[in-house]
Queue: 3 jobs
Job 1
Amino acid sequence: MRANAILFWVLTVFFAFSAALYMVWSLIYYGKIEWVGSVGLMLSTVLGAFLAFYLGRSHASQGGELPEDRLDGNIDDGDPELGHFSPWSWWPVMLGAGAALVMLGIAVGFWICFIGIAFTIICLVGWTYEYYRGYFAR
Amino acid sequence: MAVGTIVWLGSEVMFFAGLFAIYFTLRSTSPALWASETQHLNVPYALVNTLVLVSSSFTCQFGVFAAERLQARSTGWKPSQWGMVEWFTLTYGLGAIFVAGQATEYATLVSEHITLNSTAYGSAFYLTTGFHALHVTGGLIAFLLVIGRAFAVKTFGHKEATSAVVVSYYWHFVDVVWIGLFLVIYVLK
């Protein structure tokens, strides 16, 4: 994490230098400061400093080394918990059909929307609770 | 899952940025219309409604704290003992009051002849606040689904807690957008 903080400090210095250079350059070239780019570069400086400071503080309080900081680190050491993803499901297809029905109703005749909304609600609940019922109930 | 939600909320920011752009463009082209039409707005009423929505963000966050200690239900009547279900139900109630308040406000404005197709002001007002109200309604449905999941499982685990956390991200986002809309529509006029 120390390397990440240093990288963002490097970026901060780079953006601060770029902002100063940009302002001086536009002053010489056009005779006035071009504010859109100048403000953008100055804000990039602040953003870089924010991230560098935050990472530095986090490192100081946790002291934790990230896998990418270690020379003997492996790819899967940095593998985070990604959460639950369904291997396959029909519900998103049905949900898409429901949304298509609602859109069709807006374009063709509004009565179709009522069927579409009811169908979409059924699909939404079916999708959200797919792994909470039947074999997957727990 | 949290990262994916944040990326999606980034696209939502772009969507609302477009709506704000519509509002500002129409406002800059017809300032006289804005001067006359904004007099119909009931600012104290909207302020109360705003405070209801902002307080719902706090109750939502307490629900997240409960979810993070994997506590679905309350262990006593005191708010410090409440679980995620109690806090999210309260949040749902506050959000529902906000949407109902919006509907009442719309009815009042329509009776004063400000409608979606009356003037550019009406279009800008109903497009921005209407899309926001639709998002709040979507958030209310999401709260119901998350509360339902807490009832569907015997033990409330990390998966259920994650869905509670990402719904709270969405809710805070919708709340912040409303603060922006309130400042632009009711305070700046």
Job 2
Amino acid sequence: MSNFLKLFSSAPWSAKFGMLTILAYVVISIFAPFIAPYGETELIGRAYEVWSDKYLLGTDNLGRDMLSRLIYGARNTIGLALTITLIAFVLGSLTGMIAAALGGWVDQLLSRIVDVLMSIPSLIFALLILSIFGTAMPYLIGTIAILDATRVFRLARATAMNVAVMDYVEVARLRGEKLGWVIRKEILPNITAPLLAEFGLRFCFVFLFISALSFLGLGIQPPTADWGSMVRDNATLISFDDITPLLPAGAIALLTVATNFVVDWMLHKSSGLKDVN
Amino acid sequence: MLTDTNKIDDEQLNRPLLEVKGLRIEGLSEKGWQEIVRGVDLQLKRGEILGLIGESGAGKSTIGLASMGYARDGCRITDGEILFDGIELSSAPENEKRKLRGTRISYVAQSAAAAFNPAHRLLDQFAEGPVDHGVMSRREAKEKGRALYRSLDLPDPDNIGERWPHQVSGGQLQRMMVAMAMSCGPDLIVFDEPTTALDVTTQIEVLKTIKEIVIDRNVAAIYITHDLAVVAQLADQLMVLRYGNLVEVNSTGQILESPKEDYTRALLDARSRHEKTTAEINNPESLLNIDSVTAGYGKGTDVLQEVSVSVERGRTVAVVGESGSGKSTLARVITGLLPPRSGEISFQEELLPPALAQRTKQHLRKVQMIYQLPDVALNPRQRVRDVIGRPLSFYLGLQGKECERRTIELLEQIELSETYIDRLPDELSGGEKQRICIARALAAKPELIICDEVTSALDTIVAKAILDLLQRLQHELQLTYLFISHDIDTVASIADQVVVLYAGRVAEQGSKLAVFQPPFHPYTKLLLSSVPEMKLDWLEKTLSTREAQAGIAREVKITERGCPFVERCPEAIPDICVNDRPPLQTPSSGHLLACQHSPQDLT
């Protein structure tokens, strides 16, 4: 714990801001039922009520409390994005490292599959799959996870390639170590820094992707609250000079910025650059 | 403005070009700023070479760069004066210094391969400096480049600049780098270990170039190295450094003849040859037998051609040759990384499966390898405990306490204390890392250890300590080594048997005594004469020999027929050597020599 505090205090202000913001999001999404004044799908008033003491941020197009839905939205959107990113990472980095460690036809096969997947614009591809199979949660998670895994694969393969040619990997192979050991003990520890940095970025992209899909009506389905569809549902308010629909968009933007601050700092740390001044 | 170096009056000649007084430099470490150069003075005139010697961490490079008014990231000049031709560099503004660098002061880095941009042609990179500084137009700069290439004896000087960096040899690239440093006609050149990564024969060609440049063009030079024998050929003055302190400064002759400090003596001692005497072994038992192995990569030519080597238990067999001779390929064939195209390898009378995947755990355990660069041979994320512990648990099934006890035992064997067990490679010096690599190899209880250039990346003193350690371990544990090296000196101090490899073929092999005494294969003679000796004028004498004139500054070429060495051989017989494979001669039992000449003629 004291190590963590030391690390935190040594971070630049941007990274501190980022970490605190992420912490706030996490707390809000975990404790959503206790923080939110109303239920997630509860109809509590008329549609489009203005900001007041009763409804702090007004109500939406169906008369649900905006603030409560924002809070529950954090839970749904972040939870989903995190799940997808984790799956994408496990899948992408594992196959990437296998491709780098084995080389030859395994590498060729995996790389060509990834090339094919990457050659289709991802949003179009996702729309296609989701309209064929429907928008049930497993399909949504699976589709985005596989699409994002291709990007992780590329990074993991490229960085693992650099490690795989090192003498210490040759030592392990000469010792007779199995593929699992080489990947887990020799390669993975040496590529965690770029992978972690990519995790932060990828998380943001997934997040935006889900919101985009929701906005288009193919993401998280109503009545579940999520930030992307909240923007769409209340978009008409913009014409009445009301900024309420921008609040979920702002929540997305803030988290993206915060994550990137932390990622930048981690990248800087792992690059080993010294601050002279 | 350019100084015309040919027309300098006497007064200017006698005034020091560079004067450094009380230089102090601090470096940033985890413990904060720490002094790494502690008050160094130096003076340098035109036409003079100053040698800076010391092991790594002595502050040589830092001083070299500081004399250009430059401090690396994480370093700062805290005190002292750096006067270059009357200009105070330590306080000069950055853009002032930038104007000097590249035009009047230039720098030649250790690794030319890393210093050239692989994406630009050589001549374009040459022209970059002068054009950027506004000294010449691009056309003029290229013209000058070609002229310099010619004066540096580079092959095909008019067109070589159109090549990419990977298309010329290491020695040529290093000379290209020297040419680049000369592009604006500088007054001062800083050479930072320019020959350390090179073969002995290539080293001579670069040394010759540097010496000519300094004398002909009347520039001043600082030559940084850890190898006394090399710098003795060039420098007028030597400065011995240790931990950022000045140990001794004197003329080269004085330092070689009568060193005053113990440390200087240790440096001299590390370079002088200590020949190992081969002990008698009763009933020698053959351990490894390489029988007529031919191997190559992909669909390329055969990098090894019908190589046969046998290694007896308890002996050290050294494989010598320049880069490109196939030494490391031989190691890859033995370890199974590169299955041979033909030929067989047997170990303890048992045929070894050619490919790694077919070998059993016991096969793998018996042959261990130690690498040239300990930095990349150790996983930076694994602690010493894991590095040494893994072979113990993998091969011998040792766990927990038992494993730790054995690890500590191994650490003691390599003369490191128990406290090293939880260190990461970052927290070890180069020599310590190599020791850990040795311990890792020992942990497997191997029958044979392949040492691939294990001392080439180390300072002379550290290298000597590693060789001593290997010898002691051989005594205590009856180890067998296959020792791969390009350095005949190292080989002389450790080997029992020597195999001289050239372009994938065995040129000569036999006991060390037989190989290092006449009759010589012409290639062995060239290698032996190229090892720098701690004598003044050694360079000139060597360059005047027939071997050197025919043999240095040439690439190793693999040939399909005839003798591969023919182009570099002063004894070559026209037609015959080009077309016919040289026959194997046996001047004495166990001594093989592949040459058209009879042993009587090869003295």
Job 3
Amino acid sequence: MPLICIDQTDLRYSIPLCFGGAACDLRTNSADLARVLEGLSISTTDSVPSGFRMRIVVDELSNEAAGEPHFRGMQHVVTATFGRSNVFVFDILRRTLSASVSAAIARDDLFWKEKLIPISLGVLGSAMGLVPVHCACLELDGEGLLIAGVSGAGKSTLSVALSEDGFNYVSDDWTYISRRRDGIVAHGTSAPVKLLPDAVNHFRTLERHGLRRSMNGELAYEVDIAEAFGARVERTCEPRWLIFLERTQAAGPDFIPMSSAEARKYINSSIERLPSQLHEAVAMRAQTIDHVATLPCWRFRYGGTPQFAAKELRKFVVHRRQEIYA
Amino acid sequence: MTEETHWHPDLLRRFVPTPYVFSNCNGPNGIVVESNDLEIALGVRRAGLVHSRDHLTRGLFCKLIRDMAGPVGGSEMTIVADGALRVLYLGVGTILIHDQERSELFGFVARNVKVEELVTSLIPALLDARGNDKSTQPLLQRSDKRHIG
């Protein structure tokens, strides 16, 4: 029976990293993995108060690629496996990820960039004051726009269209929100933008990319937005507005003010329920959500293409800013 | 008026109801067993009473879910230990977690794993797992890159 004692392994590579605004203390026995994660680390001045630890043993004798993902969680622990050789244990109370992975996974920068880092922030974030919110985030002249909506509402296609229209891209699906003394900060990760197959009708450049099966089983284009669309990427911004997307048959657009209560209800419906053992994380998360819900908030109903929606949204944002700064 | 909360689906299966609860309050040897499966709850209670005398100093809280939705397959057992946490994987569908500091044992049992195997083999293997056990030495040395001790 293989017994992998991470705490008794010589984790000789110790590197301070930063992902999504969270400091990460990496310890590993693999120079390859240390190099990959160092390349993905993004330091920021807006880091969250508490970070997390990654303790990863790499089995140089195993070359097993990432298998089918399987997730389970109970109490304060979440586990993820990607095949027999790649196991990850998230201890939320102790803010620690302990893992054993194959040498192939250690060298696979896409696996860490697209899967493990976003998953780690999603699972451990609440214990660090970093709340994963199901929304896209774009930035214009230092001011952030959070775009929420149910799956299929068009968050990702609108994110790409806004990026092509002069906005800086932060994230398209999950945005990590932290609090600071004078407000909130939105953090993106290095995760790729995910577009469903029909997005090719709006963005011809996708014809150069292949569809692949994403973690939830959907066929999608998963592309680096900077490489595929030449978008400018910002890692953090200060959100100023919260927009809820709603696609309609009518051409639109309509902007309808929404209450904080409605906004809070939506955000709460998109976050994961946490067990009672994590009551401190639950309280911290609730405070951050309260801050997000107090942003000026509108429901944006539109029909037509993402490019049309992007133009309308840009006009709306510019108009609101003129009102604020007038 | 209280806001009604609509939670995200429980994809991790954290909140599967566990109606079968047994407890034996016997000081430091006390044990509480919760499960969604009567056979598991009974089996662990019987075995747990014996085990708690040998290994535990402050009782044990057990919560085990019979995971009918999870994958089945693989027979290799692996234990990952780091600090207070030990996690046993049997194939891909059975995952048992022991938190020594918190005296908690919890996890998911794949639908093809018999209760007898759970209580006579898997749980003892998890509770007994130590890095310096003679029984585990050959496997610990399987990979030279995992420098132990």
